[in-house]
């Protein structure tokens, strides 16, 4: 006698999805992706900003350590040798305190690959081959932190250098910008003149194709969220600054206009006066 078929026996003829149902599922996935992908992109960008600020913090801890070992002297901007020599610049001099060149590279910008000869060729000046201590996108404040310059006031701020500053002699050390991100072609440059970097041409993007001192720091606001640029201060801490720390050269065109704005907005403590030893 044959047993009756159990009611629990699965139906082998499973119902397939219809074309309409598949299209609905695909549409839902597309909607979810359109919502989530921007969130992921924002999270990734925020993570890079955090890393950038952390890098400046670690770098800033190395600068006072160098000064402590060299009788309070701020690190020399140029060490020895030419463009193809290590240490070459201050980047190489502080490297023993950091032991990581990646800290000098802005994580919001892709790090390029060196040529077969180990040098980095910048398209803005393709005839030159640089060691990475020269074209890192982190620059030291040449006129406001590293050196003092001859001159008697704001109207003549870009004369010959006198010599390196002493760290302990810098007024308002917790307000003075020591390092900031820079851009030069697709890379960066290892120093900037604070007295010129504070007076850029807004919206110029001039450094994408050539060189000038004015846009070195300002141009980097285009790669950072909310136009907030991470910087390092002379006392060793790091923070962010916005477009309010710059004077627009398009609006304030003469040196007198620039000087008046720097005074009125009290921007000298951040950028430093090149003609003052402190």
Can you characterise this structure?
The chain has one domain (22-271). Helix 1 packs across helix 2. The protein has a five-stranded mixed β-sheet with strand order 5-1-4-6-7. Strands 2-3 form a two-stranded antiparallel sheet. 30% of the residues lie in helices and 10% in strands. The model has no long low-confidence stretch (mean pLDDT 82). Strand 6 (229-233) and strand 7 (238-241) form a beta hairpin. It has helices at residues 19-69, 90-98, 142-146, 194-197, 255-264, 268-271; strands at residues 138-141, 147-149, 161-164, 177-181, 191-192, 229-233, 238-241. By secondary structure, it is of the alpha+beta class.
Short description:
It contains six helices and seven strands; from the N terminus they run H-H-E-H-E-E-E-E-H-E-E-H-H.
Map the helices and strands.
Elements: H1 19-69, H2 90-98, E1 138-141, H3 142-146, E2 147-149, E3 161-164, E4 177-181, E5 191-192, H4 194-197, E6 229-233, E7 238-241, H5 255-264, H6 268-271
Parallel strand pairs: 1-5
Antiparallel strand pairs: 1-4, 2-3, 4-6, 6-7
Helix pairs in contact: 1-2
């Amino acid at each position: 006698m044959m047993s009756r078929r159990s009611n629990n026996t699965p139906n082998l003829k499973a119902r397939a999805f219809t074309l309409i149902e598949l299209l609905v599922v695909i549409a839902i996935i597309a909607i979810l992706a359109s919502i989530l992908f921007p969130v992921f992109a924002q999270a990734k960008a925020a993570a890079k900003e955090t890393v950038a600020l952390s890098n400046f913090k670690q770098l800033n801890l190395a600068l006072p350590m160098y000064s402590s070992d060299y009788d309070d002297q701020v690190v020399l901007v140029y060490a020895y040798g030419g463009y193809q020599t290590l240490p070459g610049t201050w980047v190489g001099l502080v490297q023993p305190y950091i032991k990581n060149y990646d800290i000098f590279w802005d994580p919001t910008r892709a790090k390029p690959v060196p040529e077969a000869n180990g040098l980095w060729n910048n398209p803005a000046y393709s005839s030159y081959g640089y060691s990475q201590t020269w074209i890192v996108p982190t620059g030291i404040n040449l006129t406001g932190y590293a050196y003092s310059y001859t001159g008697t006031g704001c109207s003549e701020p870009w004369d010959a250098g006198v010599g390196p500053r002493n760290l302990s002699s810098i007024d308002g050390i917790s307000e003075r910008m020591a390092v900031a991100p820079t851009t030069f072609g697709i890379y960066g440059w290892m120093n900037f003149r604070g007295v010129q970097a504070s007076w850029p041409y807004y919206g110029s993007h001039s450094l994408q194709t050539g060189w000038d001192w004015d846009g070195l720091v300002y141009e980097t606001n285009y790669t950072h969220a909310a136009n907030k640029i991470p910087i390092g201060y002379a006392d060793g801490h790091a923070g962010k600054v916005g477009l309010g720390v710059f004077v627009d050269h398009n609006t304030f065109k003469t040196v007198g206009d620039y000087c008046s704005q720097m005074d009125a907005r009290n921007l000298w403590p951040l950028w430093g006066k090149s003609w003052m030893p402190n």
